[in-house]
Amino acid sequence: MEKDLSHYRKSYERNPLIKEDIPENPMELFKKWFLEADESDGLDEANAMSVSTIGLDGFPKTRVVLLKKITWEGFIFYTNYNSEKGKAIEANPNVCLNLFWHGLERQIIIKGVAEKIAPNLSDGYFESRPDGSKLGALASDQSQEIESREAMDSRLKQLEKKYANKEIPRPEHWGGYMVKPISMEFWQGRPNRMHDRILYALQKDYNWKITRLQP
Fold first, then answer.
1. Per-residue confidence (pLDDT) for residue 212, from 0 to 100
2. Nearest to 86 by CA among 130, 142, 30, 134
3. Which one has a higher pLDDT value, 14 or 41?
4. What is the pTM of this model?
5. 100: burial class by Cβ within 10 Å (0-12, 13-18, 19+)?
């Protein structure tokens, strides 16, 4: 298939991002932008974000996960530790997160270091999940090959019978990662592709250096 997309264009006409008006800590700006995205009409799952890792094959790979908690330290998401992304993080914990809110003409690019959260925190979140999601975490050897969809569904049905009216335990290989940021770039679309880009870079004294980047 060949399709020319060169005529696809959108003019970004919303809010400016003025350096003098932003807070010293990027987490404050993140929370402000996230709240505005979450309350915006027409935006589903404002917490959907891309996670990029460097795989064991040396290639980068990006996939969408759901941001489940925002703290002053960083950003928490949950996954199977034995998955492709889990193995990649184990080998190289340097990751990149990206949240893009098209309707607001905004994106945030976060470089940081991922580390597993405490098991009791993963337990607490796992207990809050619907039973179907809990069983899915048990049924799936994420990223591993399986012969058919039917085999996967059969495994889930077996687990549904096994844990009928019983507490469903969190698998040891399933839990949370916190990504602690070392840089956060806030991108606001502007007319004529003269976009606003403000970069926060963490310094050795744990203060944030704020700079404007050219679009």
1. 95
2. 142
3. 41
4. 0.91
5. middle
